[in-house]
Amino acid sequence: MNEQAGFTLRGRNPDVLTCIANLSNDEVFTPPEFANRMLDTLAEAWATANDGASIWGNRNVRFLDPFTKSGVFLREITTRLIAGLADEIPELQERVDHILTRQVFGIGITKLTSLLARRSLYCSKYANGEHSVASSFKTEVGNIWFERIEHTWNGGKCSFCGAPRSLFDRDKGLENHAYALIHTNNIKARIGELFGADMQFDVLIGNPPYQMTGGAGGTSDSSIYHLFVEQAMALEPRYISMVIPSRWMAGGRGMDDFRQAFLSGGHLKELVDFPASAEVFPGVEIKAGICYFLWDRAHKGKCNVTTFRGGEAIGPIARKLDEYDIFVRDGRALSILHKVLSHDEVPINSILSRDTAFGLASNFAQFRATERDGDVALFFIQRMKRGVGYVARDTIRKSIPLIDKWKLLVPEAYNGGDAVPHQILGKPVVAPPNSVCTQSFLVFSVDTQQEAESVRSYYSTRLFRFLVSQRKITQHALNSTYSWVPMQTWDTTWTDEMLYEKYGISADEQAYIESQVRAMDVGDGE
After folding, report:
1. 274 Cβ contact partners less than 8 Å away, ≥ 6 residues apart
2. What is the pLDDT of residues 125-138, one digit of tens each?
3. DSSP for 56-85, written as a single string
4. Contact status, residue 268 vs residue 305, Cβ threshold 8 Å
5. pTM
6. DSSP string over 189-218
7. Where does the secretion signal sit in this chain (predicted)?
8. Are strands 239-245 and 203-206 parallel, antiparallel or unpaired?
9. Cis-peptide into 316, omega within 30 deg
């Protein structure tokens, strides 16, 4: 017996995979303990569906990490299979060879990560090398495939992943990040080319790349993780488990179709959400947090949702995922939302502008410090500081009727960190007639100063901002983010007590709202 075959049985102190740094924001390595959490979830689902049988005792189950980086998922799967198949395949070297050649497969996302994954799994970057724990491979790559493929350029971008040609049309010696799983129109045929025409995987598991750096100028614009999920589902395995950013739940440009299909498909069995990504990936900030899910081909029905905040688990709660057009992350908010929406009132975003109300970008700088005849006041935020300048009225070409209205200007972006209670939104500004603003603000428009101040009082309530928070998953608040906030009459100063009574919010629900949303003093408008 090759003594190295016992590599998974020996302690690793320290485990090198807990020490390696991430290569980039696109390639976030998964800590071993988190990979094992996902494997535990998979094992529980398998046992439930198979009369208590262990997936790790089944010699026929095939696993694929289709975007392997460090090889941590494949290594931990192999460790479990080595223990689980001990009775069925008593001889250790035979058992290891069976697992590594017939059960565990990977696709590298770069040449470097494919070598790292082979080193983690085979104890050698060459699967057939003298130091490899496998003795049956005929090739250096073993079952961890990687070859450079090319983007398909169309109009300056890749037609598969949206990568900009200006950044990723590179020399052969440089990584171009054209990932195999999402650069094909026929994923089943592609997998057949890589691993054999009759290959059918039972489990797809891993941590895909999240975005293409530089794509379309923003995080949500360049997101690609959903493409990996869609391709994985197209392969029709029994189970899929992935860790991905949580922003798909309520945001992300181009995510609407994915979100609708993912939530309404009925195959999500488990969803585990971490609003603060640092709880999973220390030192890595992923806006809106991260989650992992278990997709079960045979499951049809409610999903068990668990949320972790500060190490505390909330749930699991069995939930219907497609109740709304977005996913409400915290199940404790549902009863409050149901009470408010049951009144069937017009939403407040009916008097709220959309993006760039007056056609002036956030970085607009053609304003002056002193007012001249024919000018209008310009409210702006630049370098995180608010200011007021002046521009000629005839500069404005958009939303002309709003210029002479009373307005409540509300910041389009606010990031107060992950700690709770949270302010949710930036402080508003009451703007008089003969004023405009840059893209940094959205605009509530009304007729009088009294109405503007009434809207401001409503905006400052915890309930208003709590309702916004259910749709605000990143720092940005768009017009649609306010669509669950109902209109009120603008002849009073609104308080939470008035709103709690109107909507029948219970004492426990009030306490929950106040634990999540802190008070806002808007008297100075700063």
Report:
1. 246, 280, 289, 290, 291, 307, 308
2. 999 999 999 998 99
3. GG-TT--EEEEEESS-HHHHHHHHHHHHHT
4. no
5. 0.87
6. HHHHHHH-TT---SEEEE----B-TTGGGS
7. none
8. parallel
9. yes
Closest CA to 364 of 438, 304, 272: 438
State the average pLDDT over residues 99-127.
94
pLDDT tens sequence across 412-439: 999 877 678 999 999 999 999 999 999 9
Instruction: Tell me if the domain spanning 3-10+24-147+179-329 has CATH number 3.40.50.150.
Output: yes
Give me the residue label for tokens 């009434």.
454
Tokens (6 digits) for 107: 């696709």
**Local confidence band at 9 (pLDDT 50, 70, 90 cut-offs):** very low
Question: What's at 48, amino acid-wise?
Answer: T
Contact 513, 336 (CB under 8 A): yes
Can you give the residue ranges of every domain in the chain? 3-10+24-147+179-329, 348-516
The DSSP-derived string for 139-201 is: SSSTTEE-------EETTEETTT--BHHHH---TTS-----GGGS-S-HHHHHHHHH-TT---
Q: Which of the four pLDDT bands, split at 50, 70 and 90, describes residue 499?
A: very high
Question: Are 107 and 66 a contacting pair, CB within 8 Å?
Answer: yes
Structure tokens that stand for 376 in this block: 């209008």
Average pLDDT, the chain: 91
Cα gap 291→307, rounded to integer Å: 9
Average pLDDT for residues 286-307, to the nearest whole number?
A: 95
